[in-house]
């Protein structure tokens, strides 16, 4: 286990904020984590980070930052049709996807190149191109921060919805994910109906590796590489509005894209709303709206978290003014 004081969080946030944690703790097993918690009633306030691809630090963190280095992948169940694989929370998400594809297992390929770690995938319910982590997750193994007890959550207990889970809501900050068990298919099954995957494949017969590479190309074309330009992926969630509000908006803006969701509600791409407000490529100080995807805010170099937040607020205000729609951050602001 590693414990550091006044530790730079630069490698732990893709926005590139050079902030410090008063204490930083990295553990590489459940036993190390529970051992640390047993001896440290002073663990609060605390924040658990993964790859930091969905975090915006606006100041130094005065408490304890925890990071999992729990690695490993273990097959825990298998039939002719599927395989259940239990993965350590500290594994890099895209390494897991690459591994699944190399093994010939179906289900994770549309989630290629999403930054971050496996533990966060189960908290955030990451998603792309018509697939969400919740579609693959069977169990989430956790440790309770207060009691140090282990608890396994079945998929249904995680209350998953679009970019939401019980770990972000009712149980926020209460449980640490240590392992996630995914069920992947052994028989060919692709989701190619979303976005331009089909077009990117160019009529070729889909294969696991082919779909993975198509998704990687699409993402690289639209989303900035955090190593080159600090960012947290989509800064806002796509708003979901009641049908009546959508109808009224569609009358005024007939070309507005939309996706119907449960309960007769409609999801509108926040990127389109922001784009229509004229923000694409605009900046305030060293914080900018990415020129190729308006949903992404970028650090042009040396921006503070507060500067990024100011830009985010200005963007959200103009969307509210023009469309009457509230957009909420997907990124966690600390
Ligand atoms: N659009 C614009 N202008 C823009 C951006 C988008 O007009 O600047 C329009 C597009 O033309 C399209 C629609 O908005 O009609 C949706 O855009 P896109 O397909 O790029 O997807 P998104 O809704 O912007 C979501 C996820 C992404 C995920 C993609 C693909 C959220 C908040 N974001 O983006 O996830 O990769 O779909 O499935 O749901 C992330 O969460 O960090 C992330 C990148």
Descriptors:
4-stranded mixed β-sheet; binds uridine-diphosphate-2(N-acetylglucosaminyl) butyric acid; 334 residues; 5-stranded antiparallel β-sheet
CA(first)-CA(last) distance:
25 Å
Overall average pLDDT? 96
Write out the distinct hetero groups bound to the structure.
uridine-diphosphate-2(N-acetylglucosaminyl) butyric acid
Number of helical runs? 8
State the major sheet. Answer: 5 strands, antiparallel
Uncertain segments of ≥5 residues (pLDDT<50)? none
Read across the widest sheet, the strand sequence of neighbours is 6-7-12-10-11
Structure class: alpha+beta
Approximate strand percentage? 25-35%
Helix content: 25-40%
Describe the structure.
With 334 residues, this protein is α+β, with helices and mostly antiparallel strands. Helices cover 25% and strands 28% of the residues. The chain has eight helices and 20 strands. The protein has helices at residues 30-39, 93-103, 118-124, 197-201, 208-222, 243-252, 270-276, 305-323; strands at residues 2-8, 20-27, 46-49, 55-56, 61-68, 73-78, 82-88, 127-128, 131-132, 137-144, 150-154, 175-185, 230-234, 240-241, 259-260, 266-267, 283-284, 287-289, 296-299, 332-333. The strands form six sheets. A five-stranded antiparallel β-sheet has the order 6-7-12-10-11. A hairpin with a 2-residue loop joins β8 (127-128) and β9. The two termini are 25 Å apart. The relative contact order is 0.13. The mean pLDDT is 96. Uridine-diphosphate-2(N-acetylglucosaminyl) butyric acid binds at residues 128-129, 195, 222-223, 233-234, 237-238, 257, 269, 271-272, 275, 280, 293-295, 330.
